[in-house]
Amino acid sequence: MRIANAAGLPAINEPDSTSRADAVKRTEAPVPTIGAADRTRDREAIEAARAALDRTPEVDAARVAEIRAALQAGEIRFDAAKLAGVIQRYHGGHE
Fold first, then answer.
1. DSSP H helical segments within 13-57, as ranges?
2. What percent of the chain is helix, strand and coil (3-state, nearest 5)?
3. Residue 35 and residue 22: Cα distance in Å, rounded?
């Protein structure tokens, strides 16, 4: 929709080209340059993190055994109804 007035002034939603160009110049931020050394350092950090992740087991079997033993010894109280309620609320069920 074009908004104009009867006096023939330009539309308020179409700035003249000089003010638009000035506005664009003011809002453009300088783009940081990344050197080859930075890219190499980043790649090495990513590869090291990936290798550490690959060495980490999917499941911490020792921790699972520890929790299982604590449950069996009664050191941890487990309330299945409370857990079910939390799951229902999380997935959009009724409280």
1. 17-27, 36-55
2. 55, 0, 45
3. 31
Distances (CA, A) of 74 to 61, 68, 92: 20, 10, 32
Kindly indicate the confidence band of residue 94, based on its pLDDT and cuts at 50, 70 and 90. low
- For residue 2, give the DSSP letter: -
State the Cα–Cα distance between residues 67 and 73, nearest whole angstrom: 10
Distance, in Å, from the CA atom of 49 to the CA atom of 20, rounded to the nearest integer, reads: 45
Contact call for residues 10 and 18 (beta carbons, < 8 A) = no
Q: Which residue has the tokens 């690959």?
A: 54
More confident residue, 28 or 48: 48
Instruction: State both tokens at 30.
Output: 């300088």
